[in-house]
Design brief:
The complex is a heterodimer of chains A (585) and B (473).
Chain A (H helix, E strand, L loop, with lengths): L12 H20 L9 H8 L1 H4 L1 H19 L3 H29 L6 H26 L13 H24 L10 H7 L21 H13 L18 H6 L7 H9 L18 H12 L15 H11 L13 H15 L4 E2 L7 E3 L10 H6 L7 E5 L7 H8 L6 E3 L7 H4 L10 E3 L7 H4 L10 E3 L7 H11 L2 H20 L11 H11 L14 E8 L2 E5 L2 H9 L1 H15 L1
Parallel strand pairs in A: 2-3, 3-4, 4-5, 5-6
Antiparallel strand pairs in A: 1-2, 7-8
Helix pairs in contact in A: 1-6, 2-5, 4-5, 4-7, 5-6, 6-7, 9-12, 11-12, 12-13
Chain B lengths: L2 H8 L2 H7 L5 H8 L27 E8 L4 H4 L4 H5 L7 H4 L21 E4 L4 E4 L3 H5 L4 E8 L5 H10 L9 H9 L9 E6 L25 E3 L17 H22 L2 H24 L6 H7 L8 H13 L4 E7 L7 H25 L6 E6 L3 E7 L2 E5 L3 E7 L6 E3 L1 E2 L6 E3 L2 E2 H11 L9 E3 L2 E3 L15
Parallel strand pairs in B: 1-7, 1-8, 4-12, 4-15, 5-6, 5-7
Antiparallel strand pairs in B: 2-3, 4-11, 8-11, 9-10, 13-14, 16-17
Helix pairs in contact in B: 3-11, 10-11, 13-14
Classes of the chains: A mainly alpha (585), B alpha/beta (473).
Chain lengths: 585, 473
């Protein structure tokens, strides 16, 4: 302890004060006149991005300095005192660097003006405080603890205050201003004057979940929790705000494009344009599905669940989110876990394959009956516990009569029904009238006649019907066709196609160079067409953007890297091109 | 190696027959299936992909295998530019450095398409005038004009088409399918191969093409005879009644069972099960081959009286097998290797297969079966734009294949070759892509259907292949 060498002179106080004053002026200039640049060099962007790294150094050093100085007041140790010197140097240096980097980071913009103003000034003042503390320390004797000073210690406390403020607003800039208080207990809130938290206004769930407004209930909450911290009132990354429907429709720097929002969510995780960026909390698959669905359906603010076309995937998500059953008129399937053992037993006892349609699905099928399977009306009755799960029933050649048809009539999710070569007759088909999803119906080799087809006229989902070797006449077939074919809907799709074709025509671009100036034309084609179609480096097709003019010829490459290789050493590549063009000839 | 499989090797057929009663048809029949079921899996094999990875579009596959390499340039892929260059030298930019089979070192000249093309169906699909019947079902067909393969000689190219590898010993696609999904019926094998006579060519096709490779042998293709009894010794010999024979089988089974209580050999248990299949086939095969229930208009549709070993009769048999739940059926027709006299050769080969191929599609459709059956029509490769005298040589860089059935976009063409029909330049479809598509339609993700053998997981598609979404609905 006592071996610390004494340095019994005071430093040149005037020089140090002058230097500190100069730095102070520069720092204040940063605060007063925020620089703005039209084009921001990449080096500047890079420097700015060091700010989040550098900014934690002065925080650490200043807090350490504060603690050491407080301890120093009570334990007069020379070693401790030396440590405060080191800390003061480090704190001032790091604060200066952090301010510079911070100024660079702010250049591209995209932050809330008010928060940035406060953060900038508090940061600058912190650095100023750290510099003057260092200046004061340098001009004191190094070897002995100085005790309480009416200049130094208040300055230290004030600087620490600035630091706290700068840190707080910095955090608000990055995470959003209510990041800290979002989950603050109300007791603490009233203490610091933050309005009390009202229980999050539960988006009203209507009696019928199909009346739920998609944006308000499903989409907006995702934006609020996952996106608004960077695309909200405080920061507008890419110029985009997602905190209200109007703003998100306006889009960002690239113009209105709600599709871009959905696309960004689906980019690979390592793509720079992926949202949220890979180091942020990611959306769940359900959330991505919901936003994509809503955007693709037109991104309407007031659209309700029932208004939008739903895929099977969305139906499943909605079931989880809103406890929604797929369609009003369908019967929900029983969960696979619940029926797994029953399905196995039934299949084994009946000697047929009764199985799930695909992995992860609750839907069941009987894919095929062998001619001698013995499957008949009684077995159909035994399927009652899983009737809602049956989607495919290929029971052609089974011993099925009209008695069994009522069991089939209860399988409301049935899409494919093969009753070929069974005893089913006209009377039995009445039970098919109430199957809302039936698409495929095979009745070949049965006793069906025209009269039996009547109930099928109501099954608008039917697409493929097989009636070979039945009593059905051409007339009955035509009647059924007419009643099933939805001309109005088909005309609607045709209109849609015509509309899209007009859109394509409207997006045609004509660029006319005019005629008459033949020399200009020759020059233009000479320079515009690359001499090679394949990249001379990689052999892949060329990108017309990546070209180099060399010796009057335009040489194209597949990518920037290959072009760079030409710039490094053109000769072998030129030789390759010459060889290639000889081959083409 | 599969330990059960090893056990199966230990008791060979002769050993088995020695232990059991000799010379009875049923036993000979059982020996056809001597590789046995996987032990510990009593009853019907239901497959390893259970439930399917994706909802299946098809339940079964009928592969009309045009062995020898039908000329895409004369049948499916019209090339007016090739006609213009008739007897002119083939541009060297196409052929330089490319593999060539029999035309090596010869002067290469173009040969114009030998037949005119016509537009068929509502879709206006262009096919040759010598395929009027297939043209009649054009709206059911997806014509892939951009197939590519890797092997330029018949046997390795067949092996590649069937197994996705040129190395013999890999399982064929039928075996993989059976391993993945099992069969729909217990009364017939799940993978059946038919070969037809006629067409003037009868290049041998190795039975290795439908082997199970390293998969358990019960998944291998079973070749039925196309004339006479489909399966040898399936009828009881003269003087032996069904009842008498089934009693013998029952006693043998009882003896086996008793013996098995002493040795507890899982393979013997497998054998007992084989007896049951054999006995069931004694019932199912005669019913299968009895065409008396086929009305005359159906026989006329195919153009056969049945049971005569023709391609037409095999197509009819294929439909009957499909109706009875057989999962994978290959119908080989050998008559497409037209190195010489291609004009007459094609007319003859098309005459043998055109009507029956189309009849199969029509017949499946009217039964509502085309919606869950995949029909494939094509060979192991195509033929060169260059003449080989009066014929064409083998060609692998671009050829055509037809698909029809469940999940297939009918009335469409997919992909294209260049203006001389040499290279597939638009949407090329590799054999691995083809296999991936086939498995996808069956409900199988080709990346997850694997079998561990010699320390490595094998796939039908090796490490390649993507389902071709453009051919699917």
């Amino acid at each position: 302890m006592t071996s610390v060498k004494a340095r019994p002179y005071r430093r040149g106080g005037r020089f140090v004060a002058g230097l500190a004053g100069f730095l102070t002026l520069i720092l204040l200039a940063f605060g007063l006149w925020p620089v703005s640049l039209d084009v921001i060099p990449e080096a500047v962007r890079f420097g700015g991005r060091l700010h989040p790294v550098l900014v934690h150094l002065p925080i650490g050093f200043l807090v350490a300095l504060l603690v050491l100085e407080m301890v120093d007041l009570f334990i007069r140790s020379a070693l401790l005192h030396h440590a405060t010197y080191i800390m003061a140097w480090l704190a001032a240096g790091a604060a200066l660097l952090a301010v510079v980097a911070g100024v660079l980071l702010a250049l591209p913009g995209g932050y809330s003006e008010e928060l940035l103003f406060r953060h900038r000034w508090l940061g600058v003042l912190t650095a100023v405080g750290a510099i003057w503390m260092l200046a004061w320390k340098i001009t004191r004797p190094l070897d002995k603890p100085h005790g309480w000073s009416f200049v130094y210690h208040p300055l230290l406390l004030v600087t620490a205050g600035f630091l706290g403020g700068a840190g707080h607003y910095g955090g608000s800039l990055t995470h959003g201003s209510d990041y800290l208080t979002a989950y603050m207990p109300n007791a603490l809130r009233s203490l610091i004057g933050v309005p009390e938290r009202v229980p999050a206004e539960a988006v009203a769930v209507p009696d019928d979940p199909r009346d739920t407004v998609v944006f308000a209930a499903l989409v907006d909450p995702i934006f609020q929790t996952r996106c608004v911290s960077c695309h909200g009132p405080e920061r507008q990354r890419g110029g985009l705000r997602l905190d209200s429907h109007d703003l998100l429709v306006q889009g960002g720097e690239s113009g209105p494009d709600t599709g871009l929002i959905a696309r960004s969510l689906r980019l690979p995780i390592d793509d720079d344009r992926r949202m949220p960026p890979r180091d942020r909390t990611q959306l769940t698959a359900d959330e991505i599905a919901i936003i994509t669905w809503w955007v693709r359906s037109g991104a309407d603010e007031h659209a309700r669940v029932r208004d939008l076309e739903k895929t099977a995937v969305i139906e499943r998500v909605l079931k989880r989110k809103l406890n929604l059953t797929p369609e009003e008129d369908t019967v929900p399937m029983r969960e696979w876990d619940e029926i797994a053992s029953l399905v196995e037993t039934l299949g084994a006892e009946m000697g047929v394959r009764l199985q799930r349609v695909e992995r992860g699905s609750d839907a069941l099928e009987i894919p095929f009956l062998t001619p001698d399977s013995g499957f008949g009306d009684e077995e159909l009755a035994r399927l009652a516990p899983v009737e809602a799960n049956m989607v495919t029933l290929n029971i052609g050649r089974g011993r099925i009569t009209d008695d069994g048809m009522e069991h089939i009539g209860r399988m409301k999710n049935l899409t494919r029904l093969d009753l070929s070569n069974t005893q089913v007759s006209d009377a039995g088909l009445i039970h098919l009238a109430e199957l809302p999803r039936l698409e495929y119906l095979n009745l070949y080799g049965t006793k069906i006649t025209d009269g039996g087809l009547k109930p099928l006229q109501r099954v608008s989902s039917l697409r493929r019907i097989y009636l070979w070797q039945t009593g059905v006449t051409d007339e009955g077939l035509a009647t059924l066709y007419q009643s099933l074919r939805d001309e109005a809907r088909i005309e609607m799709w045709r209109e849609e196609i015509r509309h899209l074709e007009r859109m394509i025509e409207a997006s045609e671009i004509v660029i006319d160079l005019g005629h008459g100036d033949s020399s200009g034309e020759a020059g233009a084609t000479g320079a515009a067409d690359p001499v090679n179609g394949k990249c001379p480096v990689s052999g892949r097709p060329v990108d017309p953007q990546q070209t180099v003019e060399h010796g009057g010829r335009l040489i194209a490459f597949c990518c920037r890297d290959c072009r760079a290789r030409f710039d490094d050493d053109p000769d072998p590549i030129l030789a390759e091109i010459d060889a290639g063009s000889r081959e083409d000839d | 190696m599969n330990p059960f499989f090893e056990a199966a090797q230990r008791i060979n057929r002769r050993h088995f027959l020695g232990k059991a009663a000799k010379g009875i048809g049923a036993i000979a029949l059982a020996s056809l299936f001597n590789s046995g079921r996987l032990a510990g899996e009593p009853g019907q094999w239901r497959g390893v992909v259970k439930p399917p990875h994706v909802a299946p579009k098809i339940r079964r596959v009928i592969h009309l295998y045009m062995a020898g390499g039908p000329s895409h340039l004369d049948l499916f892929d019209p090339k007016p530019d090739l006609a213009r260059l008739h007897e002119e030298p083939m541009p060297e930019s196409y052929t330089k450095g490319q593999p060539i089979a029999q035309l090596q070192g010869r002067e290469l000249t173009c040969m114009a398409p030998n037949y005119a093309f016509r537009r068929y169906g509502q879709s206006g699909m262009e096919m040759a005038e010598i395929l009027p019947h297939l043209g009649g079902v054009a709206d059911e067909l997806c014509l892939v004009r951009s197939m590519v393969t890797e092997q330029i000689n018949h046997d390795p190219a067949h092996t590649f088409m069937n197994t996705g590898s040129i190395i013999p010993g890999r399982p064929s696609m039928g075996a993989w399918t059976l391993y993945a999904l099992g069969n729909e019926t217990e009364n017939l094998p799940g993978f059946i191969v038919l070969t037809s006579e006629g067409g003037g060519q009868a290049q041998p096709i190795s039975s290795r093409q439908w082997s199970a490779g390293f998969l358990p042998g019960k998944f291998q293709g079973v070749k039925f005879q196309s004339a006479g009894d489909p399966v040898s010794y399936v009828s009881p010999p003269p003087g032996v009644s069904h009842q008498c024979q089934s009693e013998v089988v029952k006693h043998v089974k009882d003896l086996n069972r008793e013996f098995n209580e002493v040795v507890d050999d899982p393979d013997l248990a497998t054998r007992i099960a084989q007896y049951e299949l054999a006995a069931r086939m004694q019932m199912s095969v005669p019913e299968l081959s009895d065409l008396s229930d086929e009305p005359q208009h159906i026989l006329d549709l195919y153009g056969t009286e049945g049971g005569d070993g023709t391609f037409a009769s095999n197509c009819l048999m294929a439909r009957r097998l499909a109706e009875r739940g057989v999962r994978f059926i290959q119908v080989y027709h050998r008559g497409w290797d037209h190195h010489g006299d291609i004009k007459n050769g094609l007319a003859a080969a098309s005459g043998y297969v055109d009507q029956a191929s189309a009849a199969l599609i029509t017949d499946l459709k009217q039964r509502g079966m085309l919606d869950d059956t995949l029909v494939i029509w094509g060979g192991e490769f195509g033929r060169t734009p260059m003449a080989q005298g009066t014929g064409r040589d083998h060609h692998i860089k671009g050829f055509s294949l037809l698909m029809a059935g469940g999940g297939i976009r009918g009335g469409t063409t997919y992909g294209a070759t260049d203006e001389l029909g040499y290279n597939a330049i638009e949407n090329p479809v590799s054999i691995h892509d083809f296999h991936a598509t086939l498995l996808h339609l069956l409900g199988i993700d080709h990346r997850y259907l694997t079998f561990r053998y010699q320390g490595r997981d094998f796939r039908l598609t090796d490490v390649f292949g993507d389902p071709v979404t453009g051919v699917m609905t």
